[in-house]
Amino acid sequence: MPDAAPATLYPRAIPSILHTIQRARQGTYSIVARDPVTGALGVAVQSHWFSVGPIVPWARAGVGAVATQANAEVSYGPHGLTLLERGADATQALAQLVAADPGAAGRQVAIVDAHGGVAAHTGASCVPYAGHVVGDAVSCQANIMANDTVWPSMLAAYTAAEGPFPERLLTALEAAEAAGGDIRGRQSAAILVAPAAGEPWESLVSLRVEDHPEPLPELRRLLRLHDAYELASRADELVYEERHEDAARLYRQASELAPENHELRFWAGLGTAAAGDLETAVRYVREAIAQQPGWGELLPRLPAEVAPSARAVLDALGR
């Protein structure tokens, strides 16, 4: 059994965060889960509260994930992860945190560990509608909701969803909103996904919407852009390996995923040129320059080791 959480932890921690957390109760819905396919650990959350991202979601590679909300005690996140890292499972870690916290009646917390164990707590003082539901390696929880169908709707949507793990987490949030969501509306959202193994600071996805009239559509847009840039980063690595055709394919996929992004269009053009399709490449680069003329000024500055096709594209553009 790992060391228990110190009984004096919360009296010390609370004064330092009163000004940001305890001025009001946060109407929030969230999901914590472990992906059964990859072992990734994730949290996704939406709240009618400014900048929910630094407060609710916590995750650590190969350790677990925590959502701390309602009358939120932020230290449940890092201390819960530390307890998991020291050998507690989700149930043990949550029990120790709650037992050491004099304000536990106002907290709502969920933990998933690296083995898929789940534990959740909805304190008796959480404002209705409030509750949680636990499934296989997943917990959905909510407070100050429009009705008591919100969290079951989240679990049903997540369980039925297909596709990449981060998208399934967002699907659960969208189901919460469709079921009625926070009775006060919406303001901010966040998603945090840590890998099954890695360094403590590593994440696969870490995105926040701090203040937005429609935070979930904005979060989904950011996730799409995140995925596009991941493809472009992989393409950059292939360029250095001189695998130009493979790099060009990924650059094009990135640009197709975010066609409004002129940067991805520009690099898709250079990648396509390096793969031998100069006509398409020039069209892509022209489109990028039309959106942002600065690309035209950058093009002649690029060294050959960064963009081996830059000279050919410049010549084809007549610059």
Describe the structure.
With 319 residues, the chain is α+β, with helices and mostly antiparallel strands. The protein is 43% helix and 19% strand. It has helices at residues 9-21, 76-85, 90-99, 150-160, 165-178, 215-240, 244-257, 262-274, 278-291, 294-298, 310-317, and strands at 28-34, 41-47, 57-60, 64-70, 107-113, 118-122, 131-135, 138-143, 188-194, 205-209. Strand 7 and strand 8 (138-143) form a beta hairpin. Helix 5 packs antiparallel against helix 6 (215-240), helix 6 (215-240) runs parallel beside helix 8 and helix 8 runs antiparallel to helix 9. The longest helix has 26 residues, at 215-240. The protein starts with 8 loop residues before the first helix and ends with a helix.
